[in-house]
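Memo to structure team: turn this sequence into structure tokens by end of day. - J.P.
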Amino acid sequence: MRTVALLCVAALALSGCGLRPLYGGGAGGSVQTLLASVQVAPIEGQSGWLVSNALRDRLSIGEDVAARYRLEVQLDDSIAGLGVRSDDSVARERRTLRARYQLVDLASGAVVLDATAGSDAGIDVVGSEYATIAAEKSALERLSGIVADQIIARVARFAQSGSNVPASAAAPAPAGAR
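Reply from structure team:
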């Protein structure tokens, strides 16, 4: 009985807090419409290819919607040794993938969103070099998906906010970024 009362109080409290579903409105909602209008600029390297494909998968690329925004991403992919065995060989590695991304309005050239995303993964270094390389590649694939999810979530929050950015918050894109 007490649990039911707590659930009722929680439901009443949350109903007035202004929470809205991020993808409310389905395919015709503001979030999905904006996501479908984002083009992904080419990203360098193997990690760039993986992140770019993951972003395109999540952005509904392929729909017949004119691009309104360009997503520019710069990646920093690194592997660092952590654990050292008695013979001075590395026992564990950490693979880190960080992204700095900007959402650029194609009509004005203004950067409407400038943020970062990133994640890391631990890798056991084993006696087999092949197994270690396979683990590093597998970690990169997982990290690419995680970073793409973080980027899409942030762009979706931007879309949900109404995409209204005050003029003082929107800065022109750097000349080399176009």
